[in-house]
Amino acid sequence: MENLKNKTIGSFVAEDFRTAAVFSKYRIDFCCKGNRTVTEVCEKQNIDADALLENVLQVVQSENSGSIDFNSWPLDLLADYIEKTHHRYVEEKTNILLPFLDKLCKVHGANHPELFKINELFIGCAGELSQHMKKEELILFPFVKRMVKTKESDGILSQPSFGTVSNPIAMMMHEHDNEGERFREIAALTDNYTPPADACTTYRVTFAMLKEFEADLHKHIHLENNILFPKAVTLEKDFVEVE
Question: Smallest Cα–Cα separation from 38: which of 5, 16, 77?
Answer without folding.
Answer: 5
